[in-house]
Every structure is written in C-alpha cells, then in structure tokens.
Amino acid sequence: MADTPNRSVVRAFTIVDELSENGGGRASELATRLEMPVSTVHDYLQALVDTGYVTVEDKVYRPSTRFLEVGHRQRHRFEVVKAVRDELTAVAEETGEHVTLLIEENNQAVILAVQEGSEAITLFAYPGARMPLHVTAPGKAMLAHMDPERVESILDRDLVEITPQTITDSDVLLEQLESVRERGYAVDEGERIAGMVCIAAPVLDKRGELRGAICVCGPESRLDEARRAEIADVVKRAANVTQVNLDYV
Amino acid sequence: MADTPNRSVVRAFTIVDELSENGGGRASELATRLEMPVSTVHDYLQALVDTGYVTVEDKVYRPSTRFLEVGHRQRHRFEVVKAVRDELTAVAEETGEHVTLLIEENNQAVILAVQEGSEAITLFAYPGARMPLHVTAPGKAMLAHMDPERVESILDRDLVEITPQTITDSDVLLEQLESVRERGYAVDEGERIAGMVCIAAPVLDKRGELRGAICVCGPESRLDEARRAEIADVVKRAANVTQVNLDYV
DNA sequence: GAACTCTTTCGGCTCTCCCGGAAGACGCTA
DNA sequence: TAGCGTCTTCCGGGAGAGCCGAAAGAGTTC
Q1: Is the pLDDT reported for residue A189 higher than 70?
Q2: Which domain holds residue B37?
Q3: Nearest chain A Cα to B108, which residue?
Q4: Measuring from the CA of residue A58 to each C1', which nucleotide is nearest?
Q5: What CATH code is carried by the domain that includes residue A64?
Q6: Engineered SS bond to B170: which of A66, A153, B28, B155, CB 3.0-4.6 Å?
Q7: Same-domain check for residues B101 and B205
Q8: Mean per-residue pLDDT, B95-116
Q9: What percentage of chain A has pLDDT greater than the value 70?
Q10: Read out DSSP for A166-220?
Q11: Which positions fall inside the HTH iclR-type domain (chains A, B) (predicted)?
Q12: Domain with A222 in it: what CATH number?
C-alpha cells in the first residue's frame, strides 16, 4: 500500500473504466467527464492504443479485445470452472432456470460462468459481472464460509441497499449466514433484483476452502416453497459433485 | 502517435501481459523476466492492485476478473455477436463441429464466440483468442473484404509460418482471396493447426462493410470433398442470415 | 468562407517516477 | 533457537518523464 500509487497507472485504468462504462468515447468527452485537460487524456489514449488494450476508429476509443483475452485466460486457470462445467449444464437442464458459477474476489461476488435453462429469464449476467456479497444468494453462501474476521469487516461497511428487500442489517445477515451453514444453501428474495429469487450453494474443497458458489435464479412467481426446496437439493448436489471433481483434479 | 508513449502506462500493461501469460507471478519473478528492478516492479504491482485490475494472494499477483468484465461488456456491444447467436448454435448442431465467430482487430483475427457441436474437437479456442489473418480460413475470409491498401500492407509484412502448410507467399494468398470473393467462403487446410481443416464465410452488412466471419473447424479425416461442400453451404447460409439480422437491428 | 468544435502537436517547467540501498518477513537448516 | 539466504517491503533524493497551456490543424455547420 504505497502512499502514492503510480499516478499514471491509476489514471490509465480510470480512463479504461470510463471507456468500458460508456462503451467507448472521444478524447474530449473523456476529458470533461474525468475533469482532465484534453491534451492529457489524449496522451493517455495514445499510450493505451500503443499497448493494444485500446482501439480507435473514427476518433472513438474503445477497450480492445485484449481484455477478453486476458480475462478468459485467467478464467481458465480457475480449476473450479472446469470442475463445475458439466454440473452447470445439468442444473440448467433440470431446473430450466438461469444458472451461474460465481467466485469471491476483493469482497465482491463475480460471475465466472453462465448457463441458461430452457425457461431462463434473460438477466444482465455475463462472465466478469460483479455484485456486492450481501445482496445475493451466492454472496451469502460464500460469506458463510469466509474467515469470520473478513466477514465482520465486510458487514461493518455500508451495506448498500439495491432493492427495498436488500438486507442492510448486519445482525440479520449474520443469522442468515448461520442458517446457510446449517442448511447448506442460501436464498435471496428480490434482494438484488426485484421479483427474482436466487438459491445458491457454496463450493468448498476438501480442505474446507471456499472455491465459489453455484446459483439458480428464477422469477418469484415460478418458485413456490416446494420448488425452492427442489432447487436447493439440485444446487447442493451440484456443489457436492463439483467438490469431488475439484479434489480429483 | 506520440514519440514517447507514457512509459508508466506501457510498463503497467507489460506487467499485465507477463502476468497473463504465466497465469500470475511474484514480484521477483517478474523483475527478472522483465529485467526491471524489483522495487520498481513492486511499485507497479501495488498500483495495479490499487486499481483493482490485479489481485494478490500469498504474494502471487494475477490479473483480476476486471479484465473479463471489461472484455465482456465490450463484446456485448458488437452487434454481430447478437446477430449471429442463433445461427452459431444452428451451425454447430448441423455440422457437429467446432464453430466460432471472429472479427478483425488490429490486423488480427479475434474469436468472439465459440459453439461446440457434438463431435467437436477440443480446441484451445476462447473469446479473445487471436491469430494472424493469413493463417486461417476466417482470416482469409475477412481479408477478402478489407480495403485493398490495408490488405497489401498486411501481406507485405512477414507472413509468419505456423505450420508447414501455412501460406507465406503473398501472391498465392491474393489469388485465394479472389477465389474467396467468387465462392463466398474460405478454406484453410492445416495452415494454422496441423491436421485441422477450417471453412469460413465472411459476414458483411448491407453497406458491404466487413463485420466478422463464421468458421467451422474439424479434423481432416472427417472432412472429405463432399462434406466440405456441405459445410461451406451451411456456413454461407449462416453468414447470410446474420447479415439480415444485422440489417434489421 | 467564417466561425466553431474537436483533435493533435509542441515544449518547458515541475512533479513524480525510479531504483539503490536497507530493513523487515519468512523459511530452512543445523 | 540462532543463523543464513531469499523475497518482500519501505524509503528518499536525483533526474527524467509526464503534464498541460497554447496554438496549429482537421473537419463541420450555417
């Protein structure tokens, strides 16, 4: 944690972030948005283009496919992605819903794989999509198996409210985590997306280390008590099989 | 094209590249490989971690899932990805082979989507994977519809030989491009991967602008003359449907 | 063709990156 | 446990590189 992290590096990635959020932009646009001199932004964009991580076309700059490349290469190195693969499709087939594999990174839940069942709702879910831990079933599933100190430090911060259902009381969350450990799965009811219910089970390896979570999402209307129980079983089984695969590899 | 592109930016991404290639590394490792002082590398790594684009665990640094995020967001903005979606699965089902969608970026062919048929050979193909244009069917399909001046400048450079079959003679390539335009599809026979045949059709929009290429790859043994012709038809149809979808959107 | 906007170039001042050196952390061996 | 080797982390002063104002160039609009 240096006092002053290399400013150029930070600025470069700030520009990348800005480009990514808006899907691209022109030098002057960025300059105003980031409150930097145009010439400075211009210099950075040149440098970024030089590296190949940004492309220009008609003065519009965009993140290049290099990001995909680096991202996917890295993704392949997560053993859990391979270990879960068949189970993910199996779960999608059995439930017909939207199924994802997530991991925890920097106190956030990040999607690594998506598999859509036949009835799956179209969600804005893609590899790399991230969300706070406390607002989702997979997040809670993972929190339940993280180091208590880290959990505490995470819950101590502002628990952002994303929907009216989002749980922002850390005591309530701690109770839920306890129940996750007992039942082996977590549920969220419209806590991240209104009207959407998610059921998730944590994936642990034989040493008990957290490796991710498998999550099924569907519309409230379709998921009554009985169906939720069914899905919970499917998800738990998938997590279990994945663990076995992990330990084999 | 500034004379001296911001050194910090270039260095930062050099480090990212190195991390990506080796799937992560320690400060001292990078320092030796990149021939930089350890302390310098350390400073950069700190800054990169600060941005969230690199993570550390047990002193091992890795590109974070941010790259996936940026990459995928950008991918979604390519209309051709949506336009081709159903066709890609259709082609995979019909042929049973390995099907990909590629685009051209910075004089390279880049995979944007992969769909594996039931018999598909396992290829090291993932979104973001890149390859020279002249060594692949999709590359040739795209070259055939690029600005002649650009084509010339690309073919004028060193035509890297990847397999003994790779075509490194620009005149031969130019002839092939002509035939691609006539027939509507391109073929490569072990020019990128020995023993592998690929058949690809370019995707153009109504203005005739190049938007990408659809590619089917399979083992030589399975693809005799007749089957190649079949696949060529399937691929051409898929490209055509995609064009229609594109023009609709 | 004048006025405006946005991109690109230029260059000198100043700030910040750079890296040697040293301290600290960790692991290994005896 | 002490001692040694390796790696990470911290520190600070010098010099080189980034920064940005200003102006020129490119492209558009009316």
Answers
A1: yes
A2: 7-69
A3: A65
A4: C7
A5: 1.10.10.10
A6: B155
A7: yes
A8: 96
A9: 98
A10: ----HHHHHHHHHHHHHHS-EEEESSSSTTEEEEEEEEE-TT--EEEEEEEEEEG
A11: 6-65
A12: 3.30.450.40
